[in-house]
Each structure stands twice: as structure tokens, then as C-alpha cells.
Amino acid sequence: MLTQLKDLRSHDGFTSLAISRFISNFGNGLSPIALAYGVLSIPGADGSDLSLVMAARFVPLIAFMLFGGVIGDRFKRNRIVGGADILGSGFAALSAISLIANQSSVFFLALMGALFGILNALWWPAMSGVLPEILPKEKLQHGNAVIAMTTNIGYVFGALLGGTLVTLFGSGWALLVDAIS
């Protein structure tokens, strides 16, 4: 196993990809918890508003995924992935700042979520093609396993710490950690 990891690390970009997936998914684990508490902290907001904000993130993702696949095949995948991550971080930061400043609304968080969902529709198909550009075909199975493991560990750690960060600092600050990650 260690020999296989050492072999994967010898391929340019693999270690950076694994580390970046861990860091990004740490924030992705925080996000649903922070967003849920953030929405429910808005005066007058209830569970239906939370459902609206969460749906606003996923409906565009599903609606534009096929389009994202076409874009991912036509342009450089690493630029699509990086650009979508950077823009998505900006939308998460705007949501976080609105919560920190107590100036947020369900409409604003749903709008930021919808824009984030569109970016994810571009991101997912492009990301699925990044690893085959880094590793030779015979290394893909091991590479996918390592990337999936780092991704899942990051998500679990983010979810574990999400409630703690929301409790200690507030939902806006926890969402800001997601934006930075």
C-alpha cells in the first residue's frame, strides 16, 4: 500500500489534488450545518425557508449538469475546476458576510445557493476528468481510491467540526471557513 502511495505521489499534481480535495471538502462538510443554522437564525424563517435555500443549491446543479459536461469536454478542466471553486468561494463568502452582519435574507441565501449550484454543475463533470489527465490508466483505480478517501475524510471532519464552529462563533463565521477552504 505504501509503495502504491509513493508511486502516486511521483505523478505531478496528484498530491496537490489530494490535499486540495481534503481541504475543500472539509469546508463542504461545514457548509450544510452553517447554512441551516444561518437560515433558521433569520427572523421569521422556518423549515420551509431552509428547504427553499437547500433546494436552490441542488436544482440548478441537476438542471445544468449536462451542460457542464459539454463545457468540461470543450475547455481545460483544471481551469473550469479552479474557476468554479474560486467563484463559489466568493458566493459562500458573500453569504457568510451577510449572516455575520445580520443583513441576510432567505432570498439572498437562495440566490447565492442557486449560483453556487450552477458552478457545481460545471465543476463536477470537469473534476471527473482531472485525475485521468494526471495519472496513467493503470494507476487510476488506486488514484480514485485515494482521492475518494481524502475527500470523504475531509467532509466528515468538516461535518464534525461544523456544529462546534457554529456554536462557538456563529453560522456566518463557520460559513466563512467554508469559503476560505
Key descriptive features of the protein:
181 residues; mainly alpha
Q: In words, what does this structure look like?
A:
The longest helix is centred in the last third of the chain and has 30 residues. Helix 2 packs antiparallel against helix 3 and helix 4 runs antiparallel to helix 5. The model has no long low-confidence stretch (mean pLDDT 91). With 181 residues, the chain is an all-alpha fold. It has eight helices and no strands. The two termini are 29 Å apart.
What can be said about this structure in brief?
The protein has 181 residues and is mainly α.
How many DSSP-defined strands? 0
* Helix and strand sequence: HHHHHHHH
* Largest β-sheet summary: none
Number of helices: 8
* Regions with little confidence, pLDDT below 50 for 5+ residues: none
Proportion of residues in helical segments: over 70%
**Dominant shape:** globular
Q: What is the CA-atom radius of gyration, in angstroms?
A: 17 Å
Report the structural category. Answer: mainly alpha
Mean pLDDT: 91
Q: Which strand-content bin applies to the residues?
A: under 5%
Span of the ends, CA to CA? 29 Å
